[in-house]
Design brief:
- The protein is α/β, with parallel strands linked by helices.
- It has helices at residues 19-23, 46-56, 62-76, 82-92, 98-113, 119-130, 143-153, 183-195, 213-218, 229-238, 253-264, 266-280, 283-302, 331-339, 357-363, 374-380, 382-389, 414-422, 434-437, 468-483, and strands at residues 32-35, 134-142, 157-161, 163-165, 171-175, 204-207, 221-224, 304-309, 321-324, 343-348, 367-369, 393-396, 426-432, 448-454.
- The chain has 2 domains: 16-238, Rossmann fold (3-Layer(aba) Sandwich); 253-262 and 298-483, 3-Layer(aba) Sandwich (Glycerol-3-phosphate (1)-acyltransferase).
- It has 20 helices and 14 strands.
- A 7-stranded mixed beta sheet has the order 8-14-13-9-12-10-11, sandwiched between helices.
- Helix 5 (98-113) crosses helix 7 (143-153).
- It starts with 18 loop residues before the first helix and ends with a helix.
- The relative contact order is 0.09.
Length: 485
């Protein structure tokens, strides 16, 4: 489509490798979207994470670790085949239980890998799924490395290497053949496409390795992702669009500086809040000044943007009990920017011991609870009910704790008991992509867009204790539907 002056209409132009391109592509399962793992969906190499963990736990010797590093270098330098490298790794695990290896992989994914997933690639995966494309995670890594990422992203089709096991489910030290790598990977993709009626000429392939050049030639939409060496050279020669991301590789100097600048703003804002409180002789006025200014300042400084749907529901009825799915430590800042004034939060008592945030949270009226003592926790909730009755709103995570991944945890009844006792509505806040801004165990905020859906207030005045479990399940289902989980 062109504009009146004969130039392309910018509204219909879609950059190759963008979500807009996928949204404009043919729909349906005949279009395949094949994604590599290491260096493409995830920054770095998942196998290295597993090897480092085994070394740290003294499950392998320093000599074995050096041998693995040497084998990797030999492969990179072309002195050995990939089969030799993956075989060496499999032999080191001979005799291990496959169940134990799977448990290890899931733990390492939660602790180390989830924060390395490129947000941009996750959005591309979502876009392909939304078009009904056949999405496949095709990797030369082993299934134990691949499957946790596939589950996290909702990818049902996996092509990867697998350990050989004996009748007792223990690793034999071998890898099932044929090995999926290079031409073998291309053959596996061709076989999958033929079996599932996928038209490769209309399909996409995202990968970073030189060994994937052959597969790039097979698809109609090759998308080299973070390529180097041969793949980068071939992409330049053939004119293939190249995707490059750095957001999943950890903090960078710019993010570090922006975070420091944002945190530093806390000092003048806190001073201003104290001044406002003294001038007005009202502590709550000072607290409102701090919460509304600090959350906005730090998120702006670090490049964290909020895309809010249903913003009007934040103020339509107060006081209210605002609930949110707890993914990241950045959630506190999101709440400050969204709610701004006249609210307090409920937090675990351990936060009170934090030398920086503990005193600030206490000054803001945060209700601290002991999650390890049910009797004390119930007693500690009484100030929350009193706060609601006095006109303040409450913010609480019904999951009871921060979840290590965006997967929604089961809701507990405490928050709903509070709303019923105080006679206030519940306003569900649904956060998505908060981990992009600050992964678990992270301290440096990254530029990101966090999506927020604010649902209309839910009236609790007609609720009865006998029906509470049903109401909790209904609200939890509302979150799952909003998140698409």
């Amino acid at each position: 489509m062109t504009s009146a002056n004969g130039q392309p209409n910018p509204r219909t132009m879609r950059l190759p490798g963008s979500v807009a391109e996928i949204e404009g592509s043919p729909p349906g399962p005949a279009v395949g979207a094949f994604f590599d793992l290491d260096g493409t969906l995830v920054a770095g190499f998942t196998g290295v994470v597993m090897t480092q963990d085994r070394l740290r736990r003294r499950q392998m010797s320093v000599g074995e670790f050096i041998g693995m590093v040497q084998a990797g270098l030999n492969h990179q330098l072309g002195r050995s085949e990939f089969e030799d490298l993956i075989g060496k790794g499999a032999r080191m695990l001979r005799g291990s239980s496959l169940d134990d290896i799977d448990e290890l992989a899931e733990r390492l994914f939660v602790q180390k890998i989830v924060g390395r997933i490129y947000p941009e690639m996750r959005e591309l995966v979502r876009a392909h799924m939304a078009r009904g494309h056949t999405v496949v995670l095709s990797s030369s890594a082993l299934t134990v490395q691949v499957e946790p990422v596939a589950r996290f992203l909702g990818i049902q089709n996996v092509l990867s290497n697998k350990f050989e096991t004996d009748d007792d489910g223990r690793l034999t030290g071998e890898v099932l053949t044929p090995i999926i790598w290079g031409p073998g990977k291309a053959r596996a993709v061709q076989a999958f496409a033929a079996k599932n009626c996928v038209d490769l000429s209309k399909s996409y392939f995202y990968a970073d390795g030189d060994e994937d050049v052959a597969l790039m030639y097979l698809v109609g939409n090759p998308r080299p992702t973070n390529p180097a060496g041969k793949l980068a050279a071939v992409a330049a020669k053939r004119g293939w669009p190249v995707l490059k991301f750095s957001s999943g590789s950890g903090s960078n100097p710019i993010s570090q500086l922006r975070t420091v600048a944002g945190v530093a703003s806390m000092v003048p804002i806190a001073a201003g809040a104290i001044g406002v409180g003294l001038l007005t002789r009202n502590r709550r006025t000072g607290v409102n000044f701090f919460t509304s200014a600090f959350g906005r300042a730090l998120l702006t400084a670090t490049g964290v943007n909020l895309n809010v749907l249903g913003k009007e529901n934040l103020t339509v009825q107060r006081p209210a009990l605002f609930i949110f799915n707890h993914q990241s430590a950045v959630d506190v800042l999101l709440l400050c920017k969204l709610l701004r004034r006249d609210f307090v939060a409920i937090s675990k008592k351990e936060v009170r011991q934090n030398p920086i945030f503990g005193p600030l949270f206490a000054l803001a009226g945060t209700v601290f609870i002991d999650r390890m003592n049910r009797a004390r926790a119930v007693e500690a909730l009484r100030p929350a009910i009193d706060a609601l009755r006095s006109g303040l709103s409450i913010a609480i995570a019904p999951e009871g704790t921060r979840m290590p991944t965006p997967k929604l945890g089961r809701f507990k009844k405490g928050a709903f008991h509070i709303a019923m006792a105080a006679g206030v509505p519940i306003v569900p806040l649904v956060f998505r992509n908060a981990l992009d801004a600050l992964p678990k165990h992270g301290v440096i905020l990254r530029p990101a867009q966090v999506d927020v859906v604010v649902h209309p207030p839910i009236d609790t005045t007609g609720w009865r204790h006998d029906d509470l479990e049903r109401h909790v399940e209904e609200v939890e289902q509302l979150y799952r539907e909003t998140l698409g989980s």
